[in-house]
Amino acid sequence: MDAFIRFTNQTQGRDRLFRATQYTCMLLRYLLEPKADKQEVVTKLKKLESSVSTGRKWFRLGNVVHAVQTIQQSIHATDLVPRICLILASLNRVIYFICDTILFVRSVGLASGINKEKWRMWAARHYYYSLLLSLVRDLYEISLQMEQVAHDRAKKEKSPSQDPLVYSVADEETEWLQSFLLLLFRSLKKHPPLLLDTVKNFCDILNPLDQLGLYKSNPGIIGLGGLVSSIAGIITVAYPQMKLKTR
Prior knowledge:
InterPro entries: PEX11. This is Peroxisomal membrane protein 11A isoform X1. Keywords: Membrane, Peroxisome, Peroxisome biogenesis, Transmembrane, Transmembrane helix. The chain crosses the membrane at residues 220-239. It is found in: Peroxisome membrane. There is one protein chain. The protein has 10 helices and no strands. By secondary structure, it is mainly alpha-helical. The mean pLDDT is 86.
């Protein structure tokens, strides 16, 4: 109970819970919409989803400052590739949060002359760039982990295996794929924060891909991706050691 109270006392913790609720509503609404006798439930889920989405906008009002702080921290990263990716990703997140704030100001009626569609597309575009750069950083980190695991494995082997059997090209390709997947599995298993960050970013990018028309999805896929991403985010907030650290 104490851990739950500490979690909900954090703005990020409350935002993750609201986000999980929002995407759960989206997923359930997609699953129940085809059923004629569930229209009342669908309407309630839609209203709840809208209310939670509005509530989350209040939590995100201060995220511009947090994104700027992330830029300052990223500058001190020792590895060049993560440093560039993190700085550019954070810059795009700053622009995204600014666009999001402008859209929120319009939604509450404080400014009526704002072109909602234009700012919505700008927000989606910069959110997409931020996630894409984060995924590039994840892939780079994964490649380093795989290289390290392969190096450790080679050191443990006393001598290279000699197989007298002759393989076909298809057999060699299958063996290479199996070795690659096994190495990837061992690398991610050894580094859970990297696995969580990769899954989170991959699931998050489905939404802007759909909004920008780059890859169309249905609300069910976006809802499921958002729910998985939210759970990953809840884990990183509840257990800070599961957050991917900057080198």
